[in-house]
Design a protein that fits this description.
This protein has about 375 residues and is an alpha/beta fold. The chain folds into two domains: about 15-250, Aspartate Aminotransferase, domain 2, CATH 3.40.640; about 250-369, Aspartate Aminotransferase, domain 1, CATH 3.90.1150. About 40% of the residues lie in helices and about 15% in strands. β2, α5 (about 95-100) and β3 form a beta-alpha-beta unit. α4 (about 65-75) runs parallel beside α5 (about 95-100), α4 (about 65-75) crosses α8 and α11 (about 295-305) crosses α13 (about 355-369). The longest helix is centred in the C-terminal third of the chain and has 18 residues, at about 250-270.
């Protein structure tokens, strides 16, 4: 008798995640439909206040996506042609694209081998006369070494723009990510810990002058209608997305707690692979649960054969991407990041993942190594 194959497991289950909020979301959508306030509006203003308060900052600014949050912050600080911005080579390309599209030059550095955050020693060595800012990335949900980084940045007069796109709610001590540098930048891509039902982003800061410029830049350079102080952009957060994000923000800590519980279970079950390391004093929120193994591709194939999806974040570091070939980097320039790119593998993790399914994933991983 042929044995029944186990059902395929989703990498993330947004349908299950949204189910408890479905009625509230539909009700909120109806209210906005009746009001016809679709661009910016009261929900955006309320979300900006609530997000800032949650992060421990004084000002929030809703924008179109996480990439635009970074780019607008760079432009508002006047960082552009002739300037350099240091960032880790092991991150999503949008972090570097924001620098490039602002007119500045990304300067890549290597990462820590355990938490995948920017290597602070490498940062210090990379600072030059043209360096104006650094972008630490709180990768996979783990805070970067902000204490070490801020000490270097403040000593050298650098702006610190936190890329918190993967770390909503993560903490270093009592401080939330996004609130420790000069400005924190968030993405609300649907799969994020705090995800919209479409694109969305935001910045948090205590810098009122910076915020005033970004508010104008995001809205065609205008504070008063049809008076354009800057050559701005259409980078606004939609009112409907803000309304839905407000509902989800109230549940973020609970959702992150469920991710952390799954991560603890994985940590107990998995054998023979590297599992996430949490720096003392840090709180990891596990946007991704990333293991590593020298035979990563074999592990991934075993999971696929069992109907379990996985993901490689990121197979090609930024310094080796074709679009940055002109910078002259070669394989071996940043060995820690390159080793991670060969070995990391993200397993399914989301608040609704059952313990039984986590055990199923771990069983396949353990049998493959």
């Amino acid at each position: 008798m042929k044995r029944k194959q186990a059902a395929a497991l989703p990498f993330i289950d947004l349908t299950a995640h949204h189910k408890p909020l479905r009625k509230a979301m539909l009700r909120k959508f109806g209210e906005i439909l009746d009001s016809s306030q679709f661009i910016l509006g009261p929900e955006v203003e309320a979300f900006e206040r609530e997000l800032a308060a949650y992060c421990g900052s004084t000002i929030g600014i809703g924008v179109s996506n996480g990439y635009d949050a970074l780019r607008l912050a760079l432009e508002a600080y006047g960082i552009g042609a002739g300037d350099e911005v240091i960032l880790p080579t092991f991150t999503f390309a949008a972090t570097a694209f924001a620098v490039t599209h602002a007119g500045a030059t990304p300067k890549f550095v290597d990462i820590e081998p355990s938490t995948y955050g920017i290597d602070v020693k490498a940062l210090a060595q990379a600072i030059g006369p043209r360096t104006k800012a650094v972008i630490p990335v709180h990768l996979f949900g783990h805070p970067a070494d902000m204490d070490g980084l801020l000490a270097v940045a403040r000593d050298r007069g650098l702006k610190v723009l936190e890329d918190a796109a993967q770390a909503h709610g993560a903490r270093l001590g009592k401080r939330r990510v996004g609130s420790m540098g000069d400005v924190g930048c968030f993405s609300f891509y649907p799969s994020k810990n705090l995800g919209a039902l479409g694109d969305g982003g935001a910045l948090v800061t205590n810098d009122a002058a910076l915020a005033a410029i970004i508010r104008k830049l995001r809205n065609c350079g205008q504070a008063d209608r049809y008076t354009h102080e800057f050559v701005g952009y259409n980078n606004r957060l939609d009112n409907i997305q803000a309304a839905l994000l407000r509902l989800k923000l109230k549940r973020l800590d609970v959702s992150n707690g469920k991710r952390q519980a799954i991560a603890r279970l994985y940590g107990k079950l998995l054998k023979g692979v590297g599992t996430p390391v949490v720096r003392p004093g840090s709180e990891h929120v596990y946007h991704l649960y990333v293991i590593r193994h020298p035979k990563r591709d074999a592990v991934r194939q075993a999971l696929a054969d069992a109907g379990i999806p996985s993901g490689v974040y990121y197979p090609v570091p930024l310094h080796l991407q074709p679009c940055y070939r002109s910078m002259g980097h070669k394989a071996g320039d940043f060995p820690v990041a390159e080793a991670a790119a060969r070995e990391v593998l993200a397993l399914p993790i989301y608040p609704e993942l059952s313990a039984a399914d986590a055990r199923r994933v771990a069983k396949v991983v353990n049998a493959s190594v």
